[in-house]
Design brief:
The complex is a heterodimer. By secondary structure, chain A is mainly β. Chain A is about 5% helix and about 50% strand. Classes of the chains: A mainly beta, B mainly beta.
C-alpha cells in the first residue's frame, strides 16, 4: 500500500475512508455467506410473569452466524420487557434476564448456531400484555451454489478505519490527544478576515477534526486557511456544515499539520443580520512530542 | 488477465404509494437496471406527507414491517421485520441500516418487497431506499483515480446557485437541473455531503429532493431522493457518505438536480461537499 510523507497511508482508489468496510465473498472460500434475519413475534402476558423456552427455529439448510440482536416492542413501556437467550443446548447466554434496551445491538463475539436447531428465549413482561418481536441479525452460511456472487475480476475493497489512516509518530516520538479551543466575538453583518489561530509553542499540532457551536444570536459562515494560506474550502461554509455539533467533531482527512508557533487563519461572516455572533470552536487532534525518560 | 471492476455509488428508490394504517402492500418488485450488478449495502425509507398549507412533512418509516428478497427470490427474513427495532435511523441523515454481508443482485433481477404499515397513521407516499454500489468493468465507464504521486489537503465545496453566494436557491414548486459543482484548480475527491438550511429562509427545505449526476449524465440514483436521505442536516460530524467516493479531476463538473416539491416557499440552503483536494506532483 503506498505511503505518504509522515507514514500516512493513501486511501484505496475505489473506497471511502469515511465509510465502513465492504467486501464481496471470497471466491475461494468453501462457504458462501448470505445476509439473513431471523425473527419471531411473541405475545407476552403482563404482570411480571416469565415465559420460558420460547423457540426461534433455525433453518435446516444453513448454519447461522448471529452478529446483532434487535427487538420491536410495538410501543411497549421502555424497561418493561426483559429477555434471556439460551443456545441450542439450553445453556443460558446471560446470568439473568436483561431489559431489551440493554440487549439490543451488536454482540461482541459471533454466535455460531448450527442448522436445524433452535434458539430459546425467556421473556418477562412487567407491564401489561404486549407483543415482542425478537430479531437475530447475521448471515447464513451455505455451501457455494453460485449465490451472492458477481462477475469475476472484482478486487476486494480495501478498508482501514479512519484513525489508522493518519500519520504515525516516528520512533522516539509519541502523540497526545489535544483540543485547541477558540472563541471569536463578532458584530452583526460583519466580516472578519484572516483571524489568526495561534498554535502552541510546545509541539506540532495535527488537526483531525473540528467541533463548535454558536453562543450568540447571529450565525456565521467560515473559511479556513492552513499555515501556508491554502484555502480549505471553495467558499464560505455555513457553520452547520463546518462544525460537528459539540462535542462531536467533523472528521478532517487528511490531517492538517500545524508546526509549533504557526497559525491557521479563518474568515468569519455573520450572515443572518439578526444579531451579534459568538462562535466557539475547537480543533481536535494530537500534539506530537519527543519521548522523554518518563515516556 | 481479468479486467478490473470498479464501483459506482447508487441508490435505488422504490415508491410504494399510499398505505393505510394497518394495511399491507402486495408483493412489489424493484427491477435492477440491466447495465450493471448491484451490491446492496444499506436500507432505509421515508414517507412524504400530504401537503398541508403548502408544506410537506417527511418522516422516517417508523412503525413499518418489511421483508425483501435476494436476486433468487429467497426472502432474507423469516417474516416481516419491524423497523422500530431494526432500523434505528432508517436512513435519516443518510445513516442507513447496514446490510452486511452485502447482497448481490444481477442485472435485470428484482428485489421483491412486502411492507405493512403498523405506524398508527396513514402513509401518503411511502418510499424505500436501497443503497449500494453498482459494479462495472473499468473500461466501460469513465472512472479516473488518484495520480501516482500527489499532495493533498482536506477541502470543502459549498455550492453556489442563484444570487446569494455559497447557497443554492430553488424557486417554489420547481425543479432546477444541472446545477454545477465545478472543480477548478485541482482534483477533488468527494466523500460526503451536508446540508444546512439558510436560516434567513426558515423551514424552506422540508420537501426538497436531490439527484446527483456525473458530467456524462450518469446518475447516482434512479430517482430524486429527499435530501435528508442523501445528506446529513445539522450533523456535520456524520456527513452523508458516498461509497465509493467520487473522484472529480480538475475542470470536471458534478451535476446537481434539485426538486422543490409543493412547498409554498423557495428553497434556500447550503449544500457543502466534503473531501480532499489533490495536486499531482
Amino acid at each position: 500500500m503506498p505511503m505518504m510523507p509522515g507514514n500516512a497511508i493513501l486511501p484505496a482508489c475505489y473506497s471511502n475512508p469515511y465509510a465502513p468496510p465492504w467486501r464481496l465473498p471470497n471466491f475461494e472460500s468453501p462457504w458462501v455467506n448470505l445476509r439473513w434475519t431471523y425473527d419471531e413475534v411473541f405475545l407476552v402476558p403482563g404482570g411480571g410473569k416469565t415465559q420460558f423456552n420460547l423457540t426461534i427455529p433455525i433453518n435446516g439448510n444453513s448454519d447461522f452466524i448471529c452478529r446483532e440482536l434487535a427487538f420491536d416492542n410495538g410501543g411497549a413501556q421502555p424497561g418493561s420487557l426483559l429477555v434471556r437467550f439460551k443456545n441450542a443446548d439450553g445453556r443460558r447466554m446471560s446470568h439473568d434476564l436483561l431489559q431489551i434496551e440493554e440487549y439490543a445491538g451488536p454482540i461482541p463475539i459471533d454466535w455460531y448456531i448450527k442448522k436445524g436447531t433452535n434458539v430459546y428465549v425467556d421473556i418477562q413482561n412487567t407491564d401489561v400484555t404486549a407483543t415482542l418481536q425478537v430479531i437475530l441479525k447475521g448471515i447464513s452460511v451455505y455451501e457455494p451454489l453460485g449465490i451472492n456472487t458477481c462477475m469475476p475480476g472484482f478486487e476486494p475493497e480495501r478498508y482501514l478505519p479512519l484513525y489508522k489512516m493518519y500519520s504515525r509518530p516516528a520512533q522516539g516520538w509519541h502523540d497526545e490527544p489535544y483540543d485547541m479551543y477558540f472563541d471569536v466575538e463578532q458584530n452583526v453583518s460583519t466580516v472578519i478576515q484572516s483571524q489568526p489561530l495561534l498554535m502552541d509553542s510546545d509541539a506540532d499540532f495535527y488537526v483531525r477534526g473540528i467541533t463548535g457551536l454558536a453562543a450568540g444570536v447571529g450565525l456565521v459562515k467560515v473559511r479556513f486557511q492552513d499555515n501556508w494560506q491554502n484555502s480549505l474550502s471553495a467558499g464560505y461554509v455555513l457553520q452547520g456544515n463546518e462544525f460537528g455539533p459539540a462535542p462531536q467533531a467533523r472528521p478532517i482527512y487528511p490531517e492538517i499539520c500545524c508546526p509549533l508557533q504557526s497559525n491557521l487563519t479563518v474568515d468569519l461572516s455573520e450572515y443572518t443580520g439578526i444579531g451579534n455572533a459568538s462562535t466557539l470552536f475547537a480543533l481536535r487532534g494530537v500534539k506530537r512530542f519527543r519521548n522523554t525518560v518518563n515516556d | 488477465m481479468q479486467p478490473k471492476v470498479v464501483g459506482w455509488h447508487y441508490d435505488y428508490q422504490l415508491k410504494l404509494g399510499a398505505i393505510l394504517n394497518g394495511a399491507s402492500t402486495p408483493q412489489v418488485e424493484l427491477q435492477i437496471q440491466p447495465g450493471a450488478p448491484f451490491a446492496l449495502r444499506g436500507i432505509g425509507g421515508y414517507n412524504v406527507g400530504a401537503p398541508s398549507f403548502g408544506f410537506i412533512n417527511v418522516t422516517e418509516l417508523s412503525g413499518a414491517a418489511i421483508q425483501f428478497t435476494d436476486a433468487y427470490d429467497n426472502w432474507l427474513q423469516t417474516d416481516k421485520i419491524g423497523t422500530l427495532g431494526d432500523w434505528p435511523t432508517g436512513g435519516l441523515n443518510a445513516q442507513y441500516e447496514p446490510v452486511y454481508n452485502q447482497v448481490m443482485y444481477q442485472p435485470g433481477s428484482v428485489i421483491s418487497v412486502r411492507v405493512t404499515n403498523n405506524s398508527g397513521i396513514n402513509w401518503n407516499d411511502a418510499r424505500i431506499v436501497f443503497r449500494g454500489t453498482k459494479l462495472f468493468y473499468e473500461d466501460r465507464i469513465y472512472s479516473p483515480c488518484y495520480p501516482k504521486c500527489y499532495t493533498a489537503i482536506p477541502y470543502q465545496f459549498p455550492v453556489t446557485y442563484g444570487t446569494a453566494k455559497d447557497v443554492i436557491q430553488v424557486p417554489a414548486s420547481t425543479t432546477v437541473r444541472n446545477i454545477p459543482l465545478s472543480v477548478l484548480g485541482a482534483d477533488f475527491v468527494l466523500r460526503g455531503g451536508m446540508i444546512t438550511n439558510d436560516t434567513s429562509v426558515s423551514s424552506s427545505i422540508g420537501d426538497l429532493e436531490v439527484l446527483l449526476r456525473s458530467q456524462d449524465d450518469r446518475p447516482y440514483a434512479n430517482d430524486f431522493i429527499h435530501w435528508q436521505w442523501l445528506f446529513s442536516g445539522g450533523l456535520a460530524s456524520r456527513p452523508g457518505v458516498w461509497y465509493p467516493e467520487i473522484y472529480l479531476p480538475k475542470d470536471r463538473i458534478l451535476l446537481i438536480d434539485c426538486k422543490q416539491g409543493e412547498s409554498a416557499l423557495a428553497a434556500q440552503f447550503s449544500l457543502t461537499f466534503t473531501g480532499e483536494r489533490i495536486w499531482p506532483k
